[in-house]
Amino acid sequence: MKFSSTVCIFFFIMALTIWNSGEIPIAEALTPAECKAERTILVNACKSVVTRRPPSPFCCQRLRLTHIQCVCSVITPKLAALVDVKYAIKVIQSCGRQVPRHFKCGSITTP
Q: Along the 111 residues of the chain, how does pLDDT read in single tens digits?
């Protein structure tokens, strides 16, 4: 599966926001297709983040609703190398969330 750095940033931002929201959506067992659909919705909702514009209200909503297990499982070392963690943290904070320290999501750990 090939991902762009943009998609990787979305996944990382989403995971951190979901984790810290206190309302982590938990599913007994999501299928790979269901996870892929959630990631697709998120990426489409948050396209403005790519151009370094603030996330829309819909983007922030999707960050809170998407299941964390659909995100962290795709953050490989190769994708993690493409993430600008400082930028991701700024986006998360702009959605009204704090960033957890030392949170591990796939191959990324926050400072």
A: 444 555 656 666 655 555 544 444 444 678 899 988 988 898 888 888 878 888 999 999 887 787 777 877 788 888 778 778 788 878 878 887 777 788 888 888 888
Number of C-beta neighbours around residue 14 at 10 A: 31
- Give the CA dihedral 94, 90, 97, 5, nearest 10 degrees: 110
pTM of this prediction? 0.70
Rounded to whole angstroms, how far apart are CA atoms 86 and 110?
9
CB 62 within 8 A of CB 46: yes
On the CB side of 3, CA atoms within 13 Å amount to: 23
